[in-house]
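Lecture 7 notes: from sequence to structure.
We start with the chain below.
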Amino acid sequence: MTSEASTYYFIRHAEKDRSNKTNKNPHLTEIGKKRAKKWSKVFSNIKFDAIYSTNYNRTKETAQPTATKKGLELTLYHPYKLDTKTFLKNTKGKTILIVGHSNTTPMLVNAFLGFKKHEDIDDSKNDNLYIVTVIANKISDQVLTIN
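Predicted structure tokens for the same chain:
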């Protein structure tokens, strides 16, 4: 009997516009838009069942090129209200992309793992890809840097 694999890809949003320090919901810069398109190429051979994004311009704009290429709608989530046990149960056997932030992405990866392994992402880094795989209740993870 084989077990279903669940695979979760976590990325932080691409480079955001920092020109207005008071703007809590900035859009991506031109460099960020290029990175978002590049993510869609990185994920070109992955069949996602769903793509999750926080409800911010920068995360939605990072996720959208991949969602468009895959023919998927973005599912919005709140990182502090996501019940990871329920989420894992409801997405068993699926492949999911989750776009978040420098603090929420490692926080969620740690929640999936069940212990604190990853620190917040340095604010200058937008190229980490965390991959969490669950097979028969065994969880493994890896981090790649994609430039």
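Points to note: The two ends are 39 Å apart (CA to CA). The beta strands are 5-12, 50-53, 74-76, 95-100, 128-135, 138-145.
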